[in-house]
């Protein structure tokens, strides 16, 4: 979930590593992106990097795997958990994985820095990131955040979100102070180390706070001037989409079936997820159950297929990010997204 600005050096390093690995793998197995797209009856192989450890938002993947939807599309799919949530998009850009679950603002930022990444599908169609205050703090509207101390994970995007929300609510953002709390969102608000936090999600940190007896006010930024962007998207590189577009389109069909299964079989989908939980990141069943209830409507594209995305959403976010100086170069919506869902 942590987003940084050191894209170029990291991508160059990863690209070099990929090239060296290819040179040393002439007779062995290399990265899956180096394999030509399967033809005829051959099975296509795709490697997918998750954005974080397995949790409710990934249920559609495990459903598609368990129900055989990948096999129906003649795909062999490998799911990888990253060691750092910054890694997936960088790995996709460098050809280390075929697809990565990432964040719409992160994809825009990368593209603005000349990194050849492109979104092929919107997964969570609305932001999960909210500004939270304790209900016992007396801060029950965004305008009251003026002059307060905000805990955040030292991400420029989150600072821009808070400033936009405060100004839109009629407050003065000049007196705001920001304290880097990393991703210790829950402890910071529980111990009243800050007046408010940003970077916590309605389907995770908010649920944990409430479970632990900390009632909160959650201000949704898109109700106060911040674009209603896609929280999670499925991204790849220009090179990979050129080589594997057919396999990616098949993958999108399979995960649409997986999401439909999740909607109609929530308890079974949750059991599949819990069976896949990472040992170092154990899940709480009650939290993931509530999280899935929150996520399902936010992942619903209505009368459009699962994963559908629009140039309007991308352009609106691009324009806002440029206004906030989160990016300094022009990005065109049709460069950063491809609508491949059918």
From TrEMBL:
<dbReference type="InterPro" id="IPR027939">
    <property type="entry name" value="NMT1/THI5"/>
</dbReference>
<feature type="domain" description="SsuA/THI5-like">
    <location>
        <begin position="55"/>
        <end position="269"/>
    </location>
</feature>
<dbReference type="InterPro" id="IPR015168">
    <property type="entry name" value="SsuA/THI5"/>
</dbReference>
<protein>
    <submittedName>
        <fullName>ABC transporter substrate-binding protein</fullName>
    </submittedName>
</protein>
<dbReference type="GO" id="GO:0009228">
    <property type="term" value="P:thiamine biosynthetic process"/>
</dbReference>
<feature type="signal peptide">
    <location>
        <begin position="1"/>
        <end position="24"/>
    </location>
</feature>
<keyword id="KW-0732">Signal</keyword>
<dbReference type="Pfam" id="PF09084">
    <property type="entry name" value="NMT1"/>
</dbReference>
């Amino acid at each position: 979930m942590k987003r940084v600005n050191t894209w170029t050096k990291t991508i160059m390093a990863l690209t070099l590593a990929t090239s060296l690995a290819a040179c040393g793998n002439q007779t062995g197995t290399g990265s899956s992106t180096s394999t030509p797209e399967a033809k005829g009856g051959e099975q296509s192989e795709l490697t997918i990097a998750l954005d974080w450890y397995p949790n409710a938002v990934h249920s559609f993947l495990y459903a598609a795997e368990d129900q055989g939807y990948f096999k129906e599309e003649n795909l062999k799919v490998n799911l990888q958990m990253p060691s750092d949530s910054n890694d997936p998009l960088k790995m996709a850009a460098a050809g280390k994985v075929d697809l990565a679950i990432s964040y719409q603002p992160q994809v825009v930022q990368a593209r603005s820095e000349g990194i050849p990444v492109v979104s092929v599908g919107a997964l969570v169609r609305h932001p999960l990131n909210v500004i939270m205050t304790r209900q016992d703090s007396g801060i029950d509207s965004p305008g009251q955040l003026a002059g307060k101390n905000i805990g955040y994970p030292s991400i420029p995007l989150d600072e821009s979100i808070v400033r936009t929300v405060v100004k839109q609510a009629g407050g003065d953002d000049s007196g705001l102070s920001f304290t880097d709390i990393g991703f210790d969102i829950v402890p910071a608000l529980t111990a009243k180390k800050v007046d408010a936090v940003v970077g916590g999600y309605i389907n995770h940190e908010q649920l944990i706070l409430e479970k632990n007896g900390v009632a909160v006010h959650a201000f949704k930024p898109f109700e106060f001037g911040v674009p209603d962007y896609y929280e999670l998207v499925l991204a790849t590189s220009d090179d990979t989409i050129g080589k594997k577009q057919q396999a990616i389109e098949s993958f999108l069909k399979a995960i649409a079936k997986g999401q439909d299964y999740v909607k109609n079989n929530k308890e079974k989908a949750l059991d599949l997820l819990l069976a896949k939980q990472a040992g170092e990141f154990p899940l709480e069943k009650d939290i993931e159950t509530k999280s899935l209830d929150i996520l399902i409507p936010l992942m619903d594209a209505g009368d459009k297929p699962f994963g559908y995305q629009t140039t309007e959403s991308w352009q609106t976010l691009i324009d806002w990010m440029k206004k906030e100086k989160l990016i300094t170069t022009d990005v065109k919506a049709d460069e950063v997204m491809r609508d491949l869902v059918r």
